[in-house]
Design brief:
Elements (H helix, E strand, L loop, with lengths): L7 E2 L7 H4 E2 L4 E6 L5 H14 L4 E5 L3 H10 L5 H7 L2 E6 L3 H8 L1 H10 L7 E4 L11 H18 L2 E6 L6 H9 L6 E8 L2 E11 L2 E12 L5 E3 L26 E4 L2 H4 L8 E4 L3 H8 L5 E7 L5 H15 L4 E6 L6 H10 L3 E3 L8 H6 L14 H8 L6 E2 L2 H14 L7 E8 L5 H6 L9 E4 L3 E7 L6 H8 L4 H4 E7 L2 H9 L4 H16 L1 E2 L9 E2 L4 H6 L10 E2 L6 H7 L15 H5 L6 H5 L3
Helix pairs in contact: 6-7, 7-20, 11-12, 12-14, 15-19, 19-20
């Protein structure tokens, strides 16, 4: 069991830090190809965070007692104690959750999460999250994911979404993959001819970013999972660069590197370390070697094309069994550049602020890992999709529109995010004055104005990084420069907005309509990163009060008797129990409970 209490984790035994730890405020998705297989993993996650005294909230769609019983049978033994102390909160969705979300929007849902007092810096696990998103409608799902990820960052809460039906519906899985701009990671739990496996499509951890990582699982005596050591996988060729052999001991691992500073890591590790003079030297040295790890660096003077070509060439030549690691030195890769390197063949990108003492364990965790992603794209096209624009800073309106369109089209190949921001200058200042005070350093970040509003376009900026981007360009003075900040990140909205860029009233209607239709709210507020509620969902805002918390989208019938329920019933369709008072079980899952109630779980 990992003991680093400063990080939220999945707590799967033997799972490396880079795919076990979760960033605070991140939203992660787990797609369970085999739904019953999720219980041992969830039990390990809940039990591990409980032992670390980290608050956890569990949202379920089924009977909570049955759900907790299943978790208890596979290792979650502290449920009663956690409920008693308030460390665990359990809530149940209402049956008409989908209808309520469509009517009132994701913002109403997150409002109720705040109202029920979810602890800050905690973990929120949402089982059967298929019901939380409109997976038949990508624009709608994008807006829903936008609202949830915004709330997670603001509340500093890590969210684990567990999807149990998306895997068998191709269209739903495609929409889920389209939500990657709003997710910090996605992992699939499914069957394989050699047993169950965890496949990490993409995962952000405090230590770095990884992609295309596969771990095979063994089941322990207590019913939980453990990562098993790599072995021969049936169906793969036994010769050539992709052959799979028995895992080598750490002393047999070969580490090839270019930067002498990287070689200092070898003093803390076993294995054979050798410095090479070039990428071609690495390829020559790798000939005939078994287990290979190639360590590259990204520095201020490193060109992205050179690094990307190195990663791509090494992957194609060395095959899927080689490990390719990129270390950030005195500079950080932009988000879209990380995605490019991971798609072209990198196993791991180590962020520059990772303590050196953790790096040996991160490298050792790669042993035996296969790079499973197929490299189908043309290199030049992939590089062009992340290549920075030659423009930055202020542009005339028509040039601004043209440049934004070009960036959005190039970014489509890797599904890279872009963000358009509209804001008014604070009172007493003109748009020209405000824009002249911005500090724009990155190519592709451009601005313009229409005489009344300021417009900022951030290339390769995911929605999760928008707040940091705005603080950076304003020197931390967003509130002293802008008011009524609005932003749009989905590709469809961006294209529509740019296509209809014209008078202020026309553009305002074009931009805000999709958000209002999906969420019942606009993103125009004095606080640039908070959601302003409008009158589209007055019922939600009325019922979220101390006198009627049981009327929420969550089925939280914990503190009232039947007459009180009838008195406070609203359009949210709260369903009271058939008895004259609310049952002990439903009281248990809706609030912190006494020891007597906690014992009733078992």
């Amino acid at each position: 069991m990992k003991q680093e209490s400063s990080q939220i984790r999945l707590f799967v035994p033997e799972l490396p830090d880079t795919t076990d730890a979760m960033v605070s405020g991140g939203v992660y998705a787990m797609v369970a190809d085999t739904p019953p297989a999720r219980f041992p993993l969830l039990a390990a996650t809940l039990e591990g965070n409980r032992l670390q005294r980290r608050p956890v909230t569990l949202l379920v769609a089924t009977d909570p007692k049955t759900f907790l019983d299943r978790l208890s049978s596979v290792g979650f033994g502290g449920g009663s104690a956690a409920l008693e102390t308030g460390q665990l909160g359990v809530f149940q969705f209402q049956e008409d959750l989908n209808k309520n979300l469509f009517r009132f929007g994701m913002d109403a849902f997150t409002k109720e999460l705040d109202f029920f007092g979810l602890p800050k810096n905690s973990l929120l696990v949402i089982d059967q999250a298929d019901d939380l998103f409109s997976l038949h409608d990508l624009p709608q799902a994008l807006n829903q994911a936008d609202g949830l990820s915004h709330w997670a960052r603001q509340s500093n809460t890590s969210v684990l979404l567990v999807f149990t039906r998306a895997a068998v519906v191709p269209s739903a899985l495609a929409v889920l993959n389209g939500l990657m701009d709003y997710l910090s990671g996605i992992v699939r739990l499914g069957g394989h001819q050699a047993g169950l496996e965890l496949t990490f499509e993409y995962w952000q951890s405090p230590g770095g970013t990884v992609a295309a990582r596969v771990y095979h699982l063994n089941m322990l005596e207590n019913g939980q999972y453990q990562i098993r050591q790599p072995d021969v996988i049936a169906g793969l060729a036994l010769d050539g660069p992709d052959r799979v052999t028995e895992p080598a001991s750490p002393a047999d691992q070969n580490y090839l590197y270019l930067d002498p500073a990287v070689g200092q890591i070898g003093k803390q590790m076993s294995g054979r370390w050798q410095q090479c003079e070039s990428v071609m030297g690495i390829l020559r040295q790798a000939h005939g070697l078994g287990d290979i790890s190639v360590l590259l660096t990204f520095e201020r003077q490193t060109t992205l094309r050179e690094l990307a070509e190195s990663v791509h060439s090494l992957r194609l030549t060395l095959g899927k069994t080689a490990q390719i690691v990129v270390f950030e030195r005195d500079a950080s890769l932009r988000y879209q550049n990380e995605i490019l390197l991971l798609r072209l063949g990198a196993n791991l990108i180590v962020h520059r602020d990772v303590p050196s003492i953790r790096i040996p364990l991160m490298l050792e965790s790669l042993a035996g890992q296969m790079f499973t992603r197929e490299i189908e794209m043309q290199f030049d096209e992939a590089l062009a999709s992340v290549s920075a624009s030659s423009q930055k800073g202020y542009l005339p309106k028509q040039l601004f529109i043209s440049e934004c369109n070009a960036i959005v089209e190039r970014a489509e190949l890797l599904n890279l995010p872009c963000t358009l921001v509209r804001a008014k200058a604070v009172g007493g200042k003109t748009p020209e004055e405000v824009l002249s005070n911005l500090r724009i350093n990155r190519p592709g970040d451009i601005t313009t104005h229409d005489g009344e509003n300021c417009y900022l376009f951030f290339s390769g900026c995911p929605q999760a990084s928008l707040e940091q981007a705005m603080l950076a360009v304003t020197n931390g003075n967003v509130m002293s420069l802008f008011t009524h900040v609005q932003y749009w990140v989905s590709r469809e909205e961006l294209r529509n907005a740019l296509r209809n860029f014209g008078p202020v009233e026309h553009l305002a209607a074009t931009l805000s309509a999709p958000k209002q239709a999906a969420n019942g709210a606009s993103l125009s507020v004095e606080n640039p990163f908070a959601v302003e509620h409008v009158d589209a969902a007055p019922v939600v805002l009325r019922v979220v009060s101390p006198a009627s918390k049981q009327n929420a989208l969550l089925s939280a019938s914990s503190v009232v008797s039947e007459p009180a329920v009838e008195q406070n019933r609203s359009a949210l369709s709260f369903r009271p129990t058939a008895s004259s008072t609310v049952s002990p079980l439903r009281r248990m899952v809706a609030r912190r409970v006494t020891e007597t109630q906690a014992n009733s779980v078992e």
